[in-house]
Specification:
By secondary structure, the protein is an alpha+beta fold. The protein is about 15% helix and about 35% strand. Strand 10 and strand 11 form a beta hairpin. The longest helix is centred in the middle third of the chain and has 9 residues.
Length: about 180
C-alpha cells in the first residue's frame, strides 16, 4: 500500500491522546473554563496528568498563580459548548454565563466543577519545571468524581481544525492487566 507524505503541522491530529477536557480555574474572584486536548497520563498512583496550557491562554495565569484546577470531562452532548469555550477567551467572556455552564463547588480546590460534565478531576500543580519552556504542567489528581448515571459517556476527541471523533463502541479483550 502506498503512503503519502503528511503535513507536520497536522501530526497532532493523529496523536491526540484522550478526550477533550474543560479545564476550570478560579483566580482573583473570576472563574473560567477552557477547552483542552493536550494532556497525558503520567503516573497511576498518585494519578499524575501532564497538560499543556499555552501562555497565551487566560487560564495560564490562573493555573500558574493558584497551582490548582479541575479537569472536567464532557460528553458529546456538550460538544458545542466545548467548541464555544475553545473559540473564546476568558479575558473578555464569562464562559459560564455565556455558554450556560453551571459552576459547582469542588472539595479540595477553589476552581469549580462544571456540573454538566460527567466526571471531574480536582488537581494541584506538583511540577512546573517545563512550564517556562513548553507551557507543560504536571498535575496531581487529589479528588475524582463521576456521575453514576452516566454509564458509557461518548467523549469528544479533537482531530484538529474543528474536527472531532466521538468515542464509540467498547470492546473487551483478554488482558493480564487489572
Amino acid at each position: 500500500m502506498a503512503k503519502r507524505s503528511f503535513p507536520l503541522s497536522k501530526v497532532y491530529g493523529l496523536l491526540e491522546p484522550g478526550p477533550v477536557l474543560l479545564l476550570s480555574t478560579a483566580h482573583k474572584g473570576r472563574i473560567n473554563a477552557m477547552a483542552m486536548s493536550w494532556h497525558t497520563m503520567m503516573e497511576f498512583e498518585p494519578p499524575l496528568v501532564g497538560c499543556v496550557v499555552s501562555s497565551r491562554d487566560f487560564s495560564f495565569t490562573a493555573l500558574k498563580a493558584t497551582r490548582e484546577c479541575v479537569l472536567n470531562i464532557p460528553a458529546v452532548e456538550l460538544a458545542q459548548k466545548v467548541v464555544d469555550c475553545g473559540n473564546s477567551s476568558g479575558r473578555s467572556v464569562d464562559k459560564f454565563a455565556a455558554f450556560g455552564l453551571t459552576p459547582a463547588p469542588a472539595s479540595l480546590v477553589a476552581a469549580p466543577l462544571i456540573a454538566e460534565c460527567h466526571a471531574h478531576l480536582e488537581c494541584k500543580v506538583v511540577d512546573t519545571r517545563f512550564v517556562n519552556r513548553y507551557s507543560f504542567f504536571v498535575l496531581e489528581v487529589v479528588q475524582a468524581w463521576t456521575d453514576p448515571a452516566c454509564k458509557d459517556p461518548r467523549t469528544l476527541h479533537h482531530r484538529g481544525w474543528g474536527a472531532f471523533m466521538v468515542a464509540g463502541e467498547t470492546i473487551r479483550l483478554p488482558s493480564k492487566m487489572k
